[in-house]
Amino acid sequence: MPLIPEEPQIHESVPGPRATPAAGRTAPTPRPVPGPGPRPAPPRGAPASSVRPGKPGPAAPPRGPVAAPPAQRTNSPQPPAGEPGIAAGAQLQLIPAPADGAVDAADEAVDLLLDSGRAPGEILVLTTGETHPWAAHELSFGEASYWAQHNAADDVFYADAAAERATGRPVVVVAVNGGSDEVTAKALPAAMARAGTLLVVCGDPQRINAVLGANA
User: Fold this and answer.
1) Helix (H) or strand (E) holding 174
2) pTM
3) Which residues contact 97 (CB under 8 A, 6 or more apart)?
4) CB-based contacts of 117, cutoff 8 Å, min separation 6
5) 191-201: per-residue pLDDT in tens?
């Protein structure tokens, strides 16, 4: 089904991707989602205790099982529960990005997910075009070592969208950074099937909608 681009956001109660452009990128990065605004100043004469304090406590640890925030109901387009290849209950989010900026957008999305409390092992990142630099580096040491990291499931894993050995995780991030329309048309439904609770697609909305519409 066609995706309807909205204000870029990740339904994990976190702000959207940062708007700092990558070096050499010609297209603008996605606009950040407005986060919670600054707390209003207390009425004149009101005691300071009437203002709600900020959220205390240290940042979430980078490793180890971390309880994921509960899913939220939003107005974002939701995949029909009965459509084949779509995980029931998984949220779908499209982050507009050009093909040459899709990987950067996906990396920013991963950072935001980790900041929100997602455990690294809950996230799978897929690319439809050129291999993600992390995956290319790890594959240089051999496929056995590369897939051993996948099986350990204790860190974010990066793979080609066509890699059948990449199993599902609670969160799947897809960077539509190239590849033919046929590759994209196969990659998106496969990513939907892998996503347990959240699917984030980073790419050109017009192309994604055209590909999905042609294969509906």
Assistant:
1) strand 169-175
2) 0.62
3) 27, 29, 30, 104, 105, 202, 203, 204
4) 12, 60, 66, 67, 68, 69
5) 999 999 999 99
